[in-house]
């Protein structure tokens, strides 16, 4: 499948940097004891064997193993608890510290990611949207992907979304990404209504997906918890917290925390914002997290965290890892060089 132009360019730059020795140089130059890298994963599986996901946030088990092996040899994988201990004692975490996070609670976390993490002794935090655990329901983006991948129509139109032609897999991927981008900006109520309308328009039934066994069970979660994996809250329904009434947002936060704690018999201290962009949480939400016993929260805002007295522990940045992140780009992202380049680009853009 053809890659987006920007991704293709980044991958070329990353490969050239690696073979010229620049990646190693950047890693040395940008390494600091007062920085923490948080990697963000969603799914670890072979996308060619699935008709649900739309290719965002997916890493194959083979690539995931290469990445974990590289981290175990070249970085210091730590847990959130270790990070918070360093902050409380006012000392820097180990140089080149990395935290692994996996969002949403898909079963491939247990089947594919967990054995690899165990093999390389890499700790990880899995953020769970509790409504989907032990469930055969689908996230709204999986419904979009399944509907478009399985329709017999060559084109379709939904008033709130627009008209789209469907053809080869590349066109379908583009359509899925465009639709999901539009839906993320809507309220939860409107989004769910339109997803149902989309399925009806495309003449697709989700009934057969109920046998897919997509999500973790509490038994699997408990086993992982007993063997070194950590768990955090990701709301109950994966509602974007600024797109629902505040009282509902509070309930999503505290209920998900309570459910996970009762199932694994451990305190839940960390939270991941659904969607997690700058507009998906606010100061009111952050204050509620703090008052509810959470000690930190992660966003999807790209970047490496620099730890100092002004660090906002309730909007920690993460570096996304997906099918577009080959091993060369993965290594380059970890150095922090891209974070620096994006920062310069952002400043130049503001000046214009």
Quick rundown:
This protein has helices at 5-19, 22-30, 61-74, 80-88, 108-119, 140-150, 169-184, 188-201, 218-226, 246-264, 283-291, 327-335, 337-351; strands at residues 35-41, 43-44, 58-59, 76-77, 97-104, 124-128, 155-158, 162-165, 230-233, 270-272, 296-302, 305-306, 316-320. The chain is an alpha/beta fold.
Number of separate strands: 13
Mean pLDDT over the full residue set:
90
**Are there runs of 5+ residues with pLDDT below 50, and where?**
none
Quaternary structure state of the chains depicted? single chain
Tell me about the largest β-sheet: 9 strands, mixed
Distance between the termini: 35 Å
Order of helices and strands: HHEEEHEHEHEHEEHHHEHEHEEEHH
Class computed from helices, strands and strand pairing: alpha/beta
Helix content: 40-55%
Number of helices: 13
Radius of gyration: 20 Å
Q: What's the overall geometry?
A: globular
- Estimate the strand proportion: 15-25%
What does this structure look like?
This protein is α/β, with parallel strands linked by helices and 352 residues long. It is built from 13 helices and 13 strands. The strands form three sheets. Strands 1, 4, 5, 6, 9, 10, 11, 12 and 13 form a nine-stranded mixed beta sheet that branches. Helix 11 (283-291) links the parallel strand 10 and strand 11 (296-302). The longest helix has 19 residues, at 246-264.
